[in-house]
Amino acid sequence: DAGVTQSPTHLIKTRGQQVTLRCSPKSGHDTVSWYQQALGQGPQFIFQYYEEEERQRGNFPDRFSGHQFPNYSSELNVNALLLGDSALYLCASSLPERGKTQYFGPGTRLLVL
Amino acid sequence: AQSVTQPDIHITVSEGASLELRCNYSYGATPYLFWYVQSPGQGLQLLLKYFSGDTLVQGIKGFEAEFKRSQSSFNLRKPSVHWSDAAEYFCAVGLNNDMRFGAGTRLTVKP
Q1: How far is A85 from chain B (nearest CA, A)?
Q2: From the centroid of its chain, how far is CA B103?
Q3: CB pairs below 8 Å between A and B: how many?
């Protein structure tokens, strides 16, 4: 049973560029959430996708956007990158009901120079 | 303000000693509660969770946690720590569709 997978594992970008990160959920899961984890901090919720719609959003600017595909996989897009966007980006999948356990992927480490 | 607090940034214990990691939350209703572990450069692995019922929950790798409503706490314990337990531990609260995490506690295990 494949768990949550993310690609790429590492990425280096420069300020002002755009980046796309990808996530495939655990088998049987249809809900995908994205988190940003800055160095030395806990993960911060960016948004959640269910039925190809953004269901809830955390306190992140519109530069952060996403998409969910019919096969439940998801993308996170970040435009106009800032140095402060450097972080580990984690994807988590779950079933849609409230409080369902979220299972995390290994993350994509983004470095913005 | 709603929050998850892990008071200890860093804890060092000797291998074989007992461990308790503290977690306090500040939310109106009893939330869903989780403990995750993160090894360096890795994602988060679920150790255990509490939704309702028995307030003492058992998890993987010999960990357990106790929910105390009166103290708004969900502390993680292990009777005998192994060197492989060295990692970052995160307490989290499950809300409507998102999770709120504490800042984490880094565990170092001395030989």
Answers
A1: 17
A2: 11
A3: 62
The C-alpha atoms of residue A21 and residue A18 are separated, in whole angstroms, by: 10
Yes or no: say if A63 and A78 are a contact pair by the CB < 8 Å rule.
Answer: yes
**Model confidence pLDDT, tens digit, residues B81-108:** 999 999 999 999 988 778 899 999 999 9
Instruction: For residue A54, give every residue at least 6 positions away whose Cβ sits within 8 Å of its Cβ, in sequence order, or none.
Output: A47, A48, A66
With CA atoms as reference, the chain A residue closest to B34 would be A101
Number of neighbours of residue B73 by Cβ within 10 angstroms: 17
CB A3 within 8 A of CB A58: no
pLDDT of residue A98: 67
Q: Apex CA B6: angle with CA B1 and CA B7, to 5°?
A: 100
CA separation for the pair A109, A104 (Å, rounded): 14
Cβ distance of A56 and B104 shorter than 8 Å: no
Residues from chain A contacting residue B103 (CB–CB below 8 Å): 40-42
CA B37 to chain CA centroid, Å, is 8
Contact A55, A48 (CB under 8 A): yes
